[in-house]
Amino acid sequence: MASKGSGPVTETDAVVVGLGPVGTTYDRKLVDAGIAVHMIEIKDDTIQGGGGSRIANQQSGLGSFNVSNHLGQVAIDDISSPWTFSASRRHPKLERCSLFNGDEWDTLYAEAEKRLRISSTAFDGSIRHQLVKRTLQAADHDGGARELVSMPLPVARNGSGEEGDLEWTRAATVLPQLDTEANGSVANGLLTLHRQTRLTKLVRGDLSGGGRVESALCRDFETDKGFLIKAEIYVICAGALSTPGILHGSGWKTDADGLPALPVASWVLSRDLVNTVPKDPYHLGWNEMAEKHKRENFDDAIPIPLKDLGPHVGAPASERYPWHAEIYRNDDATTPTAEAVDRRMAVDLRWSTYAPSSASGGKGRLAYSDEMTDIYGMPGPIIELQPSSEEADVRRAQDMIQDMCSVASKLGGMLRHATGTTRAGTSRDDSVCDKYGRVWGTDNVVVGGCNVVPAGSACDPTLTAVCFAIAGADKIIEKLAPKAAVAGKN
């Protein structure tokens, strides 16, 4: 079926909401299979999201954790926005769920990494990256039991190591046929993009007939007009809070748990450590780079080139260290640095452990308020988070924080993701959807994103969410591709 418009009603094969890594994965796979897709993207360059969420953070033996402001953001990734998440695979024993077997996970991860252009070598030419990595390797007193790696990131490096030569993966990378300069709706072959548009509600028909959705009610913010899209399948990838918000506004009710403990700190590299750079202790050519920098910037006291890339070093979760560690620095306008601190001296530390399930004492709930709306007029999310008080969970969190302080002490002195909100499972008793993202009780609604990933992740869940999207898209293709092929011949 080719996309066609008929006044305020548009018909197509599939509707996909969201242009983040998960939504664009669905878009690309479906279009490659000959399926017509209408993409709904709410974000505009002038709308940054935020607001609309209220955090009820209760006290327990773990103490109080601040849930990052980004949990309340509703804006979805724009076409030109780079994706800078850490693309780690989940630990096979600690973090992966059993919805897919080991071989299936390996296959899904391999495809996800290829589609997102995941690389662990883009920052290898950076002095700061190697300085942090080699320092921590040299300070390892655990007999090499802890793995320190260059963080896998969705980025390609072109030419030299200067920051301007890094090309981060974004929506237009996965979908190169997108016209990034156009406003409003853009038709491009089988792909139609509706920018600055909100999917307000899924309009359901006779629920006794399998809960089939008949259409999606949308609103174009640029024209302030509503319209309907009728499709065979509706894929909602609007974020961990907005996706269940859309379901809530359409009549579904969802709860959530599994918000991770996420301590984050900023650190300043010690002067003694930085002063080792001209001596090139690891024989990586730092002395030549430092000398060249000094000739060109004779009054700069820091022996690190101005365009040297920040570190991106990670320690994946393991059975001995059941938390994910990241030492990184993104030198851009969105990364704050104290005015008195040169950005080349600053690094960020992020340690995160998996959250316990409700069965082990942790409680989390996601509700929505019809009275309190976000900046797009959708129901506002309310998060209630009470961490576990089980002794093992408390001890793990305490050990994680001590480990972060220990690692930080080797570098210098002291100066985030919601999952499982529409989690996948094996029945509607303990989940919102199956492992392909298909919502229980419907036959044509699919959810995607970190919200599908079952709780219990130490590492960033984005890559795993893309794995679920790949599996979900393959199931949609099995269902719709034959119909699309027949329609194309007529």
From TrEMBL:
The record's annotation in InterPro entries points to: FAD/NAD-bd_sf (IPR036188), GMC_OxRtase_C (IPR007867), P2Ox-like (IPR051473)
Under the heading SUPFAM superfamilies, the entry gives: FAD-linked reductases, C-terminal domain (SSF54373), FAD/NAD(P)-binding domain (SSF51905)
Instruction: Tell me the ranges covered by the Glucose-methanol-choline oxidoreductase C-terminal domain, including all copies.
Output: 414-469
Gene3D superfamilies listed in its UniProt record:
FAD/NAD(P)-binding domain
What keywords does the record list, in alphabetical order?
Answer: FAD, Flavoprotein, Oxidoreductase
Top-level taxon of the source organism: Eukaryota
Pfam families in the cross-refs: GMC_oxred_C (PF05199)
Q: Does the keyword Mitochondrion apply?
A: no
User: So which cofactors does this thing need?
Assistant: FAD
Q: Which family is it part of?
A: Belongs to the GMC oxidoreductase family.
Q: What is this protein called?
A: Glucose-methanol-choline oxidoreductase C-terminal domain-containing protein
